[in-house]
Amino acid sequence: MNEYIPAQYAMRLTVGSHAPRHIRRIVRSFLEEWRMPELSDAVELGVTELLANVVRHVPDRRCALLLLRQRTGVRVEVTDSSDELPRLPDTLDAESENGRGLLLLDAVADKWGVSLWSGGGKTVWFECGAGPYGERGPSSPSRLPERHSPGAAQS
Questions:
Q1: pTM of the model
Q2: How far apart are CA 61 and CA 151, in angstroms?
Q3: For 138-155, b where at least 16 C-beta lie within 10 A, e where not — what string?
Q4: pLDDT > 70: what percent of the chain?
């Protein structure tokens, strides 16, 4: 068993068309360093979808990304200034090119959710876990927004 060493990576960025590709490389690198390469596909897809939502829904395209190593996996947080909540679509047109991001996130993450900030903005987060043989844990998506004041501890 690997010894648990808390670790994190944080950055602020303005998301452009090439940002997701670069962020995926960074995520993959950290997951390899943290000896969790089996989580790369899920975490890279989740990060890509959250950054795509920033591009589509945040006027200034600015966000903060936080990658946290946990005892049994990884947590990713993307914080932006928009109060617009992400939501799963009620229906999905088979011809539509948009609207599948949160469905994909829901499929690959063990849990995810949204934390609203009292001063404005939100953090969309997800967690992917690794079992003893790299197996993902049981899925338990969290879709209800939480309210936090700036600087409050996140769950």
A1: 0.77
A2: 22
A3: eeeebeeebebeeeeeee
A4: 71
